[in-house]
Design goal:
3-stranded parallel sheet; 8 strands
Length: 121
């Protein structure tokens, strides 16, 4: 019989882990987001007046309308193809200026309820 020693992996025992608040916060935040069923990715919250020409980009999508958005007179809000816009209850986009958005068959622009998980998580 051949007896070959197998080295054990180093073990951490009786050790203290200090200054880990940030890691613990991120862990707890991730658990909280998962339990709420919200998307863990970035969401861009929007509300209030748009006072200069603005583009809502696919890179910053989905957009979450948390309060009424108003596109002021003489101002253009451009929405790129593929952007998803989710509305809280009793919110809307009022347009006194211009709203421009042209989707495609493969990159549609979605206007939907914030609870709709069929697009944008």
């Amino acid at each position: 019989m051949l007896n070959i020693p197998i080295p054990h992996a180093k073990r951490a025992s009786n050790k203290r882990f200090e200054s880990n608040r940030y890691s613990i916060f991120l862990f707890c935040f991730s658990l909280m987001m998962a339990s709420w069923g919200l998307p863990a990715g970035a969401v861009t919250d929007v509300s209030g007046p748009i006072t200069s020409d603005t583009t809502w980009t696919l890179a910053n999508s989905p957009y979450h309308v948390t309060g009424t958005v108003t596109v002021n007179n003489g101002v253009t809000l451009t929405i790129e193809p593929g952007v998803i816009i989710k509305f809280d209850q009793n919110t809307w986009i009022g347009v006194s200026g211009h709203l421009s958005g042209v989707g495609t068959t493969t990159n549609r622009i979605y206007f939907t309820d914030y609870r709709d998980d069929t697009v944008g998580g």
